[in-house]
Amino acid sequence: MSLRTPATGHVEDVSPGRGTLPPRAWYASSDAASLSLNGRWRLRVSPTADAEDESFAEPGYDAGDWAEVTVPGHWVLQGHGAPIYTNHLYPFPVDPPHVPDENPTGDHLRAFDLPGDWPAGGGAVLRFDGVESCARVWLNGTELGEFKGSRLPHEFAVGHLLEPSGNVLAVRVHQWSAGSYLEDQDQWWLPGIFRDVTLLHRPEGAAGDFFVHASYDHVTGEGTLRVDSDVEGRVTVPELGVEVAAGEPVTLPVEPWTAETPRLYDGVLATAGERVPLRIGFRTVVLEDGLIKVNGTALLFKGVNRHEWHPERGRALDPDTMREDVLLMKRHNVNAVRTSHYPPHPAFLDLCDAYGLWVIDECDLETHGFVEQEWRDNPVDDDRWTPALLDRAARMVERDKNHPSVVLWSLGNEAGTGRGLTAMADWIRDRDPSRLVHYEGDLGCRDTDVYARMYLPHAEVERVARGLDGGTLRRRRLPLILCEYAHAMGNGPGGLAEYQELFERYDRLQGGFVWEWIDHGIRHPELGYAYGGDFGEELHDGNFVCDGLLFPDRTPSPGLAAYKKAIEPVRIEAGDADGTVRVTNRYDHADLSHLEFELSHQVDGRTTGTRRLAAPPLAPGESAEVELPEAPDGGGLEVQWTVRALLAEDTPWAGAGHEVAWAQRTVAHRTPAPAATGVRPRTDGDRITLGPAVFDARTGAVRALAGVAVRGLRLDVWRATTDNDDGAPWQPDTRYGPLWRELGLHRVRHRLEAVETDGDALTVRTRVAPAGREAGLRTAYRWTSDGTHVRLTVSVVPEGDWRVPLPRLGVRFGLEGCAGDAVSWFGGGGEAYPDTGPAFKDLRWEASVGELQTPYVRPQENGARADVRWARIGGLRIDGDPEFRFTARPWTTEHLDAARHLTDLVPGDTLWVTLDHRQHGIGSQSCGPGPLPRYFLWPEPTEFAFVFSAPDA
Ligand code: GAL
């Protein structure tokens, strides 16, 4: 006798389920009635799959004492249990298809009446758009069936069970099931009915499944439309004068659909009983000459990987949030989305069609945890699981096949290789030969039409581009895309511009998709945003879940600004001839007639005048040189030009004037910062004065500059390590964050060697070194003054055996009582590190101290403004010689370094300022390569200077 109750046998059954209808196209009918069953449901959560019997599904069951939950939603985000975050480890023993006895199970109940105008006759379908991870469903006490495949639709025929009123829908949802083995994506585990539940009336003669085939012949300029339909019907497209029977092709001149020119034609499929709206985009996707081409032109993906995320609702996204994602992408020059790692809410694809984004639609499949056992027992290479894999492939393709934005189907992510994947690829190709197939784990490219890799270093990308990487014959004939690159965790990613340069240089490279779109932080009352481990998980991967270009609340991070700059569709640069600017169209399909160009000049960072610049409406790939008018005379101040490409007219995704691309050049340099000499230091008791500076006579420490009290000014080499400095443990390359800490760069000591007054200079000589090591930095601070300005020249000479670059090289100091002051400067407007810029223009800026902090979910080095010519901070003017970076914070670097969440950072009233001569690059080593060698900050003899004065001296 089996000891397992048969009622839960389906939980560990590898089959996709039973009782559901065959998958079909997703659509919202124009005229058939529907009833949303979203809203408040009754909920009872039990600790195991079989703690409670199924009597709750019986009519008349009294659930009055149950909790309530919002559907769509996850019960763990609504006060019942807790979320769990793991990257690739299964949070349960790998014992397929078994799941733990502790299997939180949410019984959901919802009573509903049919609306008064619900049509008599016909049938009805109950649709679930997403339930994690396994559901068993009853209507009015009759069991409908059960299903797995969390981010896929499942439908049941229910017409025969509906009552005009008092219907009771019961859904038992198990957190863990055999399906969980197929859903090991790097994200929170979040059970629940997290997408819509809808009752759809199916009139007599209703449409069934249909497939819109709309191709475009770029040679003739004609499109061919054929709508195959399970049910007889007619297809009309009024704008094109099309009226044909379903199944019948029609060819006629059309405007094509591309992500840059998302031309859609509204049509209708009318069957005897129903009208279905169609949004038709004509485009043809092929693999030709080893390249992915749409309408005859090779694409360059400037993409992002998008998980569905909302900081309070998890993967239950509302329409506004989806729209916001699309608008933010378009406004940041993103042209493609990989729906990592599952089909998104169907409404998201409608938005991609309408606003224009290329989509790689990915199947809900990942078995990454099996890597821990060398992929032994991997479900994708085990025939018993193949029906489940095919079911997932079919549910994706059938649901999404009518979206012009979808150009590639992806088999899934990080699932190794195996017969199941091949079966999926074969099925997809057979069902939809009009698109290409993507999958990353298949190095031989047996199952794919594109060679996809993740996190390849620049040099490796170039090797592939030049065909030097070997591989199977099939692979060598395919284009490379980086389906993930530039890991956007914390501060960074660095190196975007250099990747983009490669993508544009080599045809074989068709771009990439930054990992990833948004941080999956969960709003938390004490911690601000929670990440892995904050819910007491047994296994977790910390803040690896916060690696997006957006913060959890969808505020763009500096990384998104850097990406926008790197992928600008228009390149603006100084022309070959003096006084000209060269404009290049880097769109694949659009000309530049939708843009206008604006020229301005700046003197000392301040704009003196703005005018239109006439640029021709270049075709894709073309460039032209445009003459610039003469620049104003700066009279010793720096003079720059700025050229901006702006939307000429409103578009659906941004208004006229929205900036698409820009460039700046300095045409006359500023006169260097004053040498500031001539005044001699004077010793007076325990003080030395030098012009407007006061020092401690014994230690040489500066006490005041231009009347402003200064605390603890000294050499600084430490930064609160970034996620990219710390790197991921599996990275094979040297990770400097841990080495810096091991060397003790976060606790260097400063030994005073001499305080010398010599002629008109005060020189303080020190040696800066960590305990336990011989390596050190001999550091001299040389102060001079002209009576108004005080110049500090710092010279640093490394001694001993240095094997690591420095995190930063500069000085830091505290300004008491200044943490509330605004800061103004001439230099880069936003956060920038050596390899993350230049995303922000060099202009005059002003910001509060709060605005200077970048709120990375796990606190770390942030906020540096780069290329700063001068700054006004806390009552001081600081001129750089050469230009410098600064940060200004109401806490110390040590506090920043120790904090785990933003709420650990408590502002004091001292403003801590760092003035950096240089910083080490950022890179992407939290899951990719470190900074390029050119961005390393190796210790070497160095000298740099700052000139301090009163702000209006
Ligand atoms: C990839 C994986 C993603 C994510 C990323 C790191 O290997 O496909 O899902 O885990 O690494 O953030």
From TrEMBL:
Gene3D superfamilies: 2.70.98.10, Galactose-binding domain-like, Glycosidases, Immunoglobulins. It comes from Streptomyces viridosporus T7A. This is Beta-galactosidase. It catalyses: Hydrolysis of terminal non-reducing beta-D-galactose residues in beta-D-galactosides. Residues 689-949 form the Beta galactosidase small chain/ domain. Belongs to the glycosyl hydrolase 2 family. It is an enzyme of class 3 (hydrolase). It comes from the Bacteria. Pfam families: Bgal_small_N (PF02929), Glyco_hydro_2_C (PF02836), Glyco_hydro_2_N (PF02837), LacZ_4 (PF16353). Coiled coil: none annotated. Its EC number is 3.2.1.23. Keywords: Glycosidase, Hydrolase. Residues 1-23, 605-632 are annotated as: Disordered.
